[in-house]
Amino acid sequence: MDQQEARHLYGVLSQARLPEYEAFCAGDRVAALRLFCWNTQVAAAFYGPLQHLELALRSVLDQRMSHLFDREDWWDHPQADLHYGAQAKIREAVHQLGRQGLRSTPREVVAELPFGFWVSLVGRGNNYDQRLWRASLYRAFPGYRGGRHALHRRLDFLRVLRNKIAHHAPIHHRHLEADHEAIIMMLGCIDEPLARLVARYSPVPAVVAVRPGLR
Known about the structure:
By secondary structure, the protein is mainly α. 67% of the residues lie in helices and 0% in strands. Helix 8 crosses helix 9 (176-190). The longest helix has 41 residues, at 29-69.
């Protein structure tokens, strides 16, 4: 990429937080655009591991909640008593399904709920520690030996990373190797064979290894 190409691309992509990259690269627009492109590449590499984590978390928590309240639409059980934020997410999911002309079956609602909803189930909520975690949800993490609070903190950390990637935010400055290890570790808490599979095929280490340097 030469300076003329950089000037053109910068004009097209100027709203894509490029000034942040330019500042990081000491005003070098070519280096900034290279870093921007690599940031896109490494964000895409994280998509697979994060997708596996989100799907696995959704699956195991839905299973445990269905078992605890003995119904597929467990969120409607009077004793579920979900936090108002979680209830709002469920209403939003039902609304979105209706807009798409889909029925609000338990399967469809579960699939529509975002990552943050599932992370919130191991948060404090409405006395979730006693009512949900100790009653059932700890069983969703057979590879974990610790308290609910520490597990929630780790999951919420990964939720923030996932949202940064989803909103095209810069992640190049993060300790990406540690982020990747955190995803694999959390997958191991849920299912060790799945964690090994994701670690084996994840493109993240290879992409991190070719990070462009500053000139």
